[in-house]
Amino acid sequence: MNEKSVLIIGAGPVGLSLAVALINKGIKVEVYEEGATLNNEIRASTFHAKTLEMMDQWGVIDDVLANGNRVEKLQYWDRQQKKLVANFDYSILKDTTKFPFRLQCPQHIYTRTIAPRVEDSPLSTIHYGHKLVRFEEANHGIHAWFQTEKGLVKKEGIYLCAADGADSTVRKFLNLDFSGMTYEDRFLLIGTQVDMNKIYPGMGPVNYIFDPEEWVIILNLINLTRIVFQVPQGESNETALSDSSISRRMDRFLEGRVPWEPLSRSIYRVHQRVAETFRVGRALLLGDAAHINNPASGMGMNSGIHDAWDLATSIEQVLTGKGDEVLNQYSERRRSYALESIKTYTAKRFADLGAKDPEAQKKRNSELSNTAQNPQLAKQYLMRASMLDMEVQ
Ligand SMILES: Cc1cc2nc3c(=O)[nH]c(=O)nc-3n(C[C@H](O)[C@H](O)[C@H](O)COP(=O)(O)OP(=O)(O)OC[C@H]3O[C@@H](n4cnc5c(N)ncnc54)[C@H](O)[C@@H]3O)c2cc1C
């Protein structure tokens, strides 16, 4: 369909999803990744039903499902009272989606699962060790320069799609505003193997545990439990990651009653930020390069993958004769979604986790409990949490 390729910067979950979406439409792509291999960082692990539906269309769903843990229950607990606040059962979505569950699969496993689709296709290549340093528009296309082991390399394409993450070189090169805020709390991720039922009988595989002092999130992946702790302002990263601090946190949480061993540990600062536009000429932003939010609801990467779906459709429309303004519409649609929907929803869910005011806690708990017990409201709640309530073109 296109003589020159679409250039994708970044082989993270969003860049590779865009590559798969474009090659499925017969569009040539070249992916450039600064790392020598795919990134290994422990970050996202939640894939929502809407995203699984896209993977189904792309023909990668079986491989992805094989690498993740299907979770059919979403629970909220009160840590101080050690009480179940609400239990949502995803089976209520069984008439709405082929995927009435959420999948827990680390993002570095997702990228490794879909990368072969891109590497094996005659329409695409992944170039590792290529760091984008600058670009410019020329001759109805785009020229981009990459730093490589062999020096500076120049490539040409029709569009440059920035999936180069929160520190996006493309966004900075374009001098785009990325305003928003940074949270005081950081997220400490501990990978371990632990049976939570000894402390919280009846606890399911995914749990948000409210606590005004120290909230906790528990996510069960295949063969690993990921425990996420709030790290308050005033505690340094070094302290939070030290053996003594991890032992103190875990023993307090598990009441010293359950054996555990830290298999991995990492800490993240989290933000809510949206770029001022997702399009400047032939440069298009998506994923974390365009928007970041606090990860408590597991929506950052998912919404980035939805950007990829939308952008692939938009690029196809331009290449098959629709006007170029389709790409402005991509920018407006996805930017207002990031601002009005994802940002508001994730901020609310995050505020709920550590609510300090006893009245606010009572209200939160009774609202959640009532919602979970009313089938119509529970369905609406899970449609929203699964990102099924939104249309992606
Ligand atoms: C603790 C934590 C938990 C999270 N949990 C979830 C979750 O459960 N669900 C969810 O939806 N989201 C979650 N997120 C958010 C999720 O991790 C990100 O939204 C996701 O990684 C964004 O993917 P991306 O491909 O846009 O960017 P990235 O994953 O950051 O990938 C960008 C890629 O671009 C490459 N790159 C950067 N600059 C250049 C350059 N100049 N040239 C070439 N290559 C370049 C990088 O090496 C990298 O491989 C979480 C985030 C954190 C911090």
What would you note in describing this structure?
The chain is α+β, with helices and mostly antiparallel strands and about 400 residues long. It has a domain at about 5-70 and about 100-180 and about 270-350: FAD/NAD(P)-binding domain (3-Layer(bba) Sandwich), CATH 3.50.50.60. About 35% of the residues lie in helices and about 30% in strands. The chain is built from eleven helices and 20 strands. The protein has helices at about 15-25, 50-60, 60-65, 105-120, 170-175, 235-240, 245-255, 300-320, 325-355, 360-375, 375-385, and strands at about 5-10, 30, 45, 70, 75-80, 85-90, 100-105, 125, 130-140, 140-150, 150-155, 160, 180-190, 205-210, 215-220, 225-230, 265-275, 280, 285, 290. An eight-stranded mixed sheet has the order 6-5-14-15-16-13-17-20. A hairpin with a 5-residue loop joins strand 14 (about 205-210) and strand 15. Helix 8 runs antiparallel to helix 9 (about 325-355). The longest helix has 28 residues, at about 325-355. The model has no long low-confidence stretch (mean pLDDT about 95). Flavin-adenine dinucleotide binds near residues 44, 163, 302 and 304. Flavin-adenine dinucleotide (FAD) binds near residues 13, 14, 46, 169 and 300.
